[in-house]
Amino acid sequence: MQIANETVYQSLSSFESLEQLNEAVRKYKDQISEMNLRQDVKRNLLLVLEYIKRHSCRFFGVSWKGKRKIASELGLSDRTVIRLCQRLESLGFIQQHEMKRASDMQQTSNAIVIAPAACTENVRQATEEMSDHKNNISLKQKHNINHLNVNRSPYIKFVPKSLQHYQSFFGKQVKDLYGRVWLAAKKLGIKAEQDIMQEVGFKAMEQVKQYIKDGKQLSGEEKCKLAYAISYKQLEQRFGKGGEYLDWNYEAERLFKLIRN
To answer: Start-end ranges of CATH 1.10.10.10 in the chain?
Structure first.
């Protein structure tokens, strides 16, 4: 957790000019517009993204507006804004950094950083999965043309296209890991939209992958347990009574210790 000050905000700045920032946000808006989402969700995603952009002009791409302030000015609930920011983050459009005040070292509003468009190549695959039928055809054709000469892994049934690339890391176990997302939802009695379940699966697999890359030795069973625990906490946060944004680096560490006990 970093101390909130101008030096830190400047270091988080991801654009050299306002024009670059505006261009990136335009691309993200186009992708959101193509997604097969409920109209109210799509509208609110665009609203929040535009708000963050308008309040990211001092240090290009960096906003330190709190969720409660954003919710108040947009006429949304705090929990709705939290969920929308989580969705934007899972899509790779923004990053959220926990900050603390220098005066008392207590947590303050997160810094929300808009990611450069060049850093969101993986989002294209997620957009393909969620796009409507008309746009989906052209995107698939473009994807196939760009990958004609690439050896690709077999398609695993019941795993969304946006998560198939995890085969290169987890192999066929990607099916078991994604199954834990649905198991967590069933345990909580939640019926969520496909795109939400994919976002939860993305976050869970990314965290498990990062643990292994950091040198943690995980058995197949432990990978599944950790994916389930992370998915459960995400779904509980989205649909339960809790509303605070979680630092997933910290939360995953806590869950990792739990499955080892």
So the answer is: 2-118
Q: Which two tokens stand for residue 130?
A: 């969620």
Length of the chain: 261
Mean pLDDT value across the chain = 78
Residue 233: which residues within 8 A CB-CB, separation 6 or more?
246, 251, 255
Q: In whole angstroms, give the CA distance from residue 52 to residue 231.
A: 27
pLDDT tens figures, 126-177: 444 444 443 444 444 545 545 444 445 577 777 888 788 888 889 889 999 9
Residues of the chain with pLDDT > 70: what percent? 77
> Hey, what are 258's tokens?
């739990």
The helices-and-strands tally (H runs, E runs) of the chain is 12, 4
Residues 101-123: tens digit of each pLDDT: 788 887 787 789 998 875 444 44
| Packing angle of the helix pair 194-213, 220-239 (nearest 10 deg) | 140
Cβ-Cβ contacts under 8 Å for 181 (sequence gap 6 or more): 197, 200, 201, 204, 227, 228, 231
- Which CATH class for the 2-118 domain? mainly alpha
CB 164 within 8 A of CB 153: yes
